Amino acid sequence: MRALRILLILVVVLGGLFVIADRVAVHFAEGEVADRVRARENLASTPDVDIKGFPFLTQVAGGSLDDVELGIKSYPVPTGTEGRTIRIDDLKADLKDVKFSGDYSSAIAKNGTGSATIAYDQLMQAAKTEPTELAPGITAQITGLGDGGDGKIKVSVKLGIPALGIQRTIPVLSSLDVKGGKVSVHADALPVIAGANLADGTFRQITDFQQALDQLPGGIAVSSVRATADGVRIGVTGSDLKLAG
Question: A Pfam family matched by this chain, by name (predicted)?
């Protein structure tokens, strides 16, 4: 009986030591992966890395991690105009089957899904904010973007008709779409100005615009877009995503 008690105590102690060793190892690995991602993507701050699953050491022995959550607080994406970027916030990605080298110098996820947010003031960089002549004596410019409800975006357009003493801002409800790595804003319907409809194509030179988002971390791509109170919420997805190396 005494021998059995001692054996049970040893099992508990060794089990506890294994758990401690496992948690120390996973903490180290998370730090290494975070540092590699920061260096690869040239991030201003270290991302959050959370390696899921227990025990971690058996995953290491197999050369891959079942589930890794990656969080990047802020990420600058090139706009397509030289030297300019658009910031996306709170990028979170759930990465599956992450294969890595022994020193974590390379890591590739088989697939991943996630989300991020583009603040409206950031998306404004793609819009025409300078007065543009739509027709003789009629100018227009975008002065703001916001939530239009039901996943739509509200585009505030300032119209000016000096000869008639008219200057007012009107909301244009627009739809969001994503194709080929570009987020598109497209007006659902165009307003009547001074009792007449402007040519559809003419007014859409102002209301409709695109923003490229095809250079996201690891090769992940935008799969969906939706306007919310805090900005445009984007869904992301991808396969064979390179995190390091």
Answer: LmeA
